[in-house]
Amino acid sequence: MNTSPATTIWAYTPLSGSQMRYEIFAGPQRVALISFGASAWKLAARERFIGWNDTQRQRNLPLVINNARFLVLPWIQSKGLASKILALIARQLPHDWQQRYGYRPVLFETFVETPRHRGTCYKAANWIHIGQTTGRGKKCLGHQPVIPVKDIWLYPLSKGFRAALCN
Fold first, then answer.
1. For residue 115, is the peptide bond before it cis, meaning its omega torsion is within 30 degrees of 0?
2. How many CA atoms does the CB half-sphere of 156 hold within 13 Å?
3. Taking the CB of residue 112, how many other CB atoms lie within 10 A of it?
4. Which of the two residues, 134 and 16, has the higher pLDDT score?
5. Which of 17, 114, 117, 150 is the most exposed place for a label (fewest CB within 10 A)?
6. Candidate from 38-42, 63-67, 86-90, 114-118 with smallest mean pLDDT
7. Do residues 32 and 89 make contact, with C-beta atoms less than 8 angstroms apart?
């Protein structure tokens, strides 16, 4: 399959909330779907990695965008395609987000359910594995895991991402 620079990214109109959804094409063939949206409210491993306090997190959390869904269509066989898509998105999405929402994100995050998935494409695309979730979910009131534990991966979109998030 040809995944040369001629690969195009198409954006769909978002549903409710700040989000971007893309169909990825190689020439005329759709090869993948990917979406980004609002970040998790609190995430201990991310907070430690960034080094921000509660006030900074509350103010700057919109600058962190969550890769909510990523699917390379199952009949597509192309070595390295997923990491190439992640690299293309890292260059394109900040511009699209700025145009649509009036500000530029500085950090991507995603969650990978292990051992079901390994996060290989994120590692190949230079995302940083920073730890795991607790399995409590964003609306859990107790302290016991209620959903699968997931690996947390981050991708800085600018060299000054910490300064932007901690200002």
1. yes
2. 12
3. 21
4. 134
5. 17
6. 114-118
7. no
